[in-house]
Amino acid sequence: MINRLTLANLAHRPVRTALSILAIAVEVTMILTLVGVSNGTLHESARRARGSGADILVRPPGSSILSSLSSSPMSDKLPDVFSKEPHVVLATGTIIQPLELFDSITGLDMEQFSRMSGGFHFLEGGLPVQDTDMIVDEPYAREKHLHVGDTLTLISHQWHITGIYEPGKLARICVKLAALQNFTGNPHHLSQIYLRLDDPSKAQSVVDTLRAKYPGYPIFTMEYFTSMLSVNSLGLLRNFTYVVIGIAMIVGFIVVFMAMYTAVLERTREIGILKAVGSSSALILGMLMRETLLLAVFGTIAGILLTYLTQWLMLHFAPGGLYQETVYGWWPITAGIAIVGSLIGAVVPGIKAVRQDATEALSYE
User: Fold this and answer.
1) Which of 27, 240, 254, 358 gets the highest tally of CB atoms within 10 A of its CB?
2) Is 334 exposed, middle or buried (0-12, 13-18, 19+ CB in 10 A)?
3) What are phi and psi of 333, to 5 degrees?
4) Which pLDDT score, from 0 to 100, does residue 213 have?
């Protein structure tokens, strides 16, 4: 009986019910989208790093493991030096030129990189031949509507697209190493160096040896480097995520509070009648809480479904380098946040409802 009455009350005011569900859905979508983009972008970066085929990463002196590289302070003679170290079978360096937002151009020794990574898997075209040739991965080509034979202007130079390859190979945009060194005014310099070992299980012991021999150079196993590409390892991103979650909770709380407060005012006479026929305060409060719980559940379901829309929008319209993944572990967390926040928002209107005097409520217009 109470459940039927609760559903009838929600159906009797469809606009308010729909707006309340939509507001809670937006709260859920905000949280899940932010978490999905944060995790997706970092995981995609880790996947590309693993796609290099390297076991060890060497970064410039003074840089941290996750700092961006906007300069090229290492000599391009260093890969030959590292290649002579025990267990190192291949060493190759790259130069990185940052672009807008998360994108960058990476200069590669194409032959060395192909030996290390197993080579690019081209969907169209092939490797660069001229210094002004460029290859890009399929998501970047789709975003920029590029095909083999097109030209693209970056860092004040025109590049000729010679190949489009499957994603996951270190970088989204690649050119010849020497060409990017010259175009950026960094001849014979590198941004970072990748090492491949004869036995990947010895990566940590080799890192310890190299750190002792080359003090000042941040040297990491690739496994450790990719493990650091997570939200929990980036304090600023983690704090930003918590701030947005807090804002979403406040928005949801306010919307539910206003919806339930309005519902109590609209149903003053109805509550008076329930009290007059002997309904207890607990019954009336329970009915309001059930309504709120249903709103939160429907809003959560709608919010989860909306994240698939944001994924589609992210895939087709978001700036390059942003990826949204579905983080299933956050579904129950977000549902809990939405439900608890909604129930808290209904407490004050609920108390107002049960404290109403039956006589005054029946005379309310």
Assistant:
1) 27
2) buried
3) -65, -50
4) 93
